[in-house]
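protien #1 (seq + structre)
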Amino acid sequence: MFDFALTGKLLGFDFVQTALLAAGVLGLVAGLLGPLIVARRMSFAVHGTAELAFTGAAGALLVGVTVGYGALAGAVIAALLLGVLGGRESDRDSVIGVILSFGLGVGVLLLTFYDGRTANKFGLLIGQIVAIDPGDLTVLIIASVVVIVALALIYRPLLFASVDPAVAVARGVPTRLLTLVFAVLVGIATALGVQIVGSLLVVALMVTPAAAAARVTASPWKATVLAVVFAEVAALGGIVLSLAPGKPVSAFVTAISFAIYVVCRLIAFARERGRKVSAADAAPVPS
């Protein structure tokens, strides 16, 4: 299934190199945002945002403009809706469910009016690296720089609000504003992943690497570094492995992400078991 010679040949094509660069940028952004997404329990929100990113991309495909712009518009709208309507934690899941189903339904409807290639429609759901052109790459890089700069500016209060929201509110941290801004950043990052891994599986890059990192370290800084490394391995490795068989990138990205997550869980299990054994050995023997 994996042909080294064919893979090496395909790696020389411009569109593959463009896709690898796009995946590298996406992996960096996903890794930086992922630990905060996990800490703030926003995994389901990422999925809901991805559905409106899909809707925006479908609309862009229908009217003939760059898919990336449509995905960005849809994801930002979704993020704003989640931030405004899902302010109370008790309402959050239901609001996400409503937005997710609405976005998916409208996106499917828009695609029925599109008379172009079926692969373009399917690509919005599972990703299509051949669809990434230099114009899309430019949009992705600019959007990624905006996300990284904005995240750097709000990182400390956002981390504080994520770890201990009650104390953050008492200290005067504008938690609601931070939630809205972070939701928009997540929306932008989610939109960037639509063309690479598709709207259905973008969670594999936005959440899984960070969830894996959280299993092996409690340090926010170490978790962020590990999440970036895991996301890069999944994104770049998924593209390379998909070249020779010609199968969807998303299948390989999700498989690598899941494998990393399983390994991290096994490491965490082994550590916990080792601590229990050490504690039992250190316990005083009753006389």
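ok now protien #2
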Amino acid sequence: MQSDVTLANEMLHVGIIMDGNGRWATRRGLSRVRGHEAGVETIRRIVEAAPKQGIGTLTLYAFSTDNWRRPRAEVAALMTLLRFYLANEVQSLVKNGVRLSVIGRRDRLPEGIAAAIAGAERATAQGKVLHLRIAVDYSARDAILNAAAKAAALTSLTREAFSQLVTGEVGLRDVDLIIRTSGEKRLSDFLLWEGAYAELHFTERMWPEFDSSDLAEALASFHRRERRFGGLQSLPLEPAPSL
């Protein structure tokens, strides 16, 4: 029987920029907060569908460092939803074998949320079916900058060691596929280091509309390209040609 580590390494790492909650709500005459609430329901659907579609690690972009610039009421509502998710989803995550990690800064979060995150991470630490990573107050450039500051004290450095400094995890699989909903076509400071060779998939679907069939379509596109080009992550790194 294969070990859990082997099985996890064979499964994909998918990152999703969950975009379009506000526009989805506005088009329906609803408040932007209602759009974010609908987005949480989509998270539940996709977390359930992901392992069945060959995903071992799922990183969701929930709140960027730049999102602090949004209207105060909207930010407060997002933090309330995060608090609600942590309080109400842990039992389900444990039952379904999902390990939760939260990446990004915690020192600027409202009182009590950092402790709730730590509690949820401890409670789900034994999950083997899916590693769910939620990016909150996250900036990939800041993560790289902080890793560079730590690396300055080292006498030698490898890509693997630097990757651990960036991600905070040992042996995290690089991102295979990044999906962005809502029609926007940019990375917005998401997984810049670990997504260096990721396939990019953009869809017009708003995040609250996104479902398991949309995820399957994105993965099918990814696998077609992998078969065509032989898998970018498996290619040896070569020096860039001289000009």
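Helices lie at 4-10, 21-27, 32-49, 72-95, 113-123, 140-151, 159-167, 212-229.
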